[in-house]
Design brief:
Number of domains: 5
Number of helices: 11
Order of helices and strands: HHHEEEEEEEEHHHHEHHHH
Structural class: alpha+beta
Radius of gyration: 60 Å
Shape: rod-shaped
CATH class of the largest domain: Alpha Beta
CATH superfamily of the largest domain: Band 7 domain
Number of strands: 9
CATH topology of the largest domain: Tetrahydropterin Synthase, Chain A
CATH architecture of the largest domain: 2-Layer Sandwich
Length: 391
């Protein structure tokens, strides 16, 4: 059975134009019992290439063979890998070396031109800088500050000799403190708590100081803003902190404090403004504050009504005084006439609605009952009502 399989294998390789990996040559008759590849005789002798000492024995099936071909390798694993490494390093045969670049028409290599192109691109990218109209850039030489460059096309030494970092110095930065819906409680001068939310606007006025003076300038701005706001709120009572007029004063005070502190730090930051977005009592005391606010509104309404009544009374008194001044001016011109007129007017006002008895001189009845006579001439009250009803 084994001979039959070997014969079929030799026949298939022969038809493919190759030698059988199990037999000797293409002309092997296929007879005889063959030993495996790399087998040795009893004396341990062999040809060192995976074939026994006899030329008719089997060969190594993993190495090429044939006339005019390189000698076959040993079946040893160590020898196989040694031959492969030598091919990769260029010392072996043709198929295992590094790929080579194609040559130019004049026979020279493209490698120098490729290296020169890469170097030119690197020099252009790292030496030419476009700075926008709202930007400035700092140039550092081996990590040390060198200069500040403005907008436009600027040049520098290539990296890593010089490094250029561009920064927007004109746009306004906005920080909202606190972030989100967090609560920020601060103490007022009358020992009350107020929940504040405010916005800080700033930009860069000196890029060199901003980049190299502070470790984290943005965080420094946040901390200075909070410290300045707490100091300013501590100087005003709760009513001024909650009212619109008091907010303006607090915002101006916070801006001045922040700018003074940041200038002492030499931070290179310019504060554009501070805006208080919310000033409310603490969440747990909102109900009590609403009651107090309602009571204050009622008190203010009562004060307004009192002031209006006082103004009306004052206006009436001023009118009476003006009328008296006019009478006094006439009195000074004609005192007797003015006295008599004032007497008549006063008596008319006093006796207008009183019962009167008029008595004259001698020969006249001493009593004239004018009120009784008037009552007699007037119709009874029920008659008047009946007359009205009849109509």
């Amino acid at each position: 059975m084994r001979r039959f399989v070997n014969a079929i294998a030799r026949g298939g390789f022969a038809m493919a134009g190759r030698r059988s990996p199990w037999g000797g040559g293409s002309g092997d008759d296929g007879t005889g019992d063959e030993s495996p590849a790399g087998a040795q005789d009893d004396n341990g002798s062999g040809d060192g290439e995976g074939r026994p000492a006899s030329s008719d024995g089997p060969r190594n099936p993993w190495v090429p063979s044939g006339d005019g071909q390189p000698p076959r390798r040993s079946a040893s694993i160590e020898d196989i890998f040694k031959n492969r490494d030598s091919r990769r390093s260029g010392g072996g045969g043709g198929g295992g070396g590094m790929p080579r670049l194609p040559q130019r028409p004049d026979g020279k290599s493209w490698f120098p031109l490729i290296v020169a192109g890469i170097a030119a691109i690197w020099l252009a990218v790292s030496s030419i800088h476009m700075v926008g109209p709202k930007e400035q850039a700092t140039v550092t030489t081996f990590g040390k500050y060198s200069r500040t460059i403005g907008p436009g096309m600027q040049f520098s030494l290539p990296w890593p000799i010089q490094n250029v970092e561009v920064t927007d110095v004109t746009s306004i930065n906005r920080y909202s403190i606190p972030e989100g819906e967090a609560e920020k409680l601060m103490l007022t001068s009358d020992q009350n708590l107020v929940d504040l939310s405010y916005l800080v606007r700033w930009n860069i006025k000196d890029l060199k100081l901003y980049r190299f003076r502070l470790a984290d300038p943005e965080e420094s701005v946040r901390q200075v803003a909070e410290a300045a706001m707490r100091a300013s709120i501590a100087e005003v009572p709760l009513d001024e902190a909650l009212s619109g007029a008091g907010r303006g004063q607090v915002e101006l005070s916070v801006k001045e404090r922040m700018q003074r502190i940041l200038d002492n730090y030499r931070s290179g930051v310019l504060i554009q403004g501070v805006e208080i977005k919310k000033a409310d009592p603490p969440e747990k005391t909102i109900a009590a504050f609403q009651q107090v606010t309602a009571a204050q509104q009622d008190a203010e309404r009562d004060r307004s009504n009192a002031r209006a009544w006082a103004q009306q009374l004052l206006a009436r008194a001023q009118g009476d005084a003006a009328a008296f001044d006019k009478v006094y001016a006439e009195y000074r011109l004609a005192p007797r006439v003015t006295k008599r007129r004032m007497y008549y007017e006063t008596m008319e006002r006093v006796l207008n609605k009183n019962n009167k008895v008029i008595m004259e001189g001698d020969g006249v009845a001493p009593f004239l009952p004018l009120p009784e006579m008037r009552k007699r001439t007037e119709p009874p009250a029920d008659t008047q009502v009946t007359a009205k009803g009849g109509k």
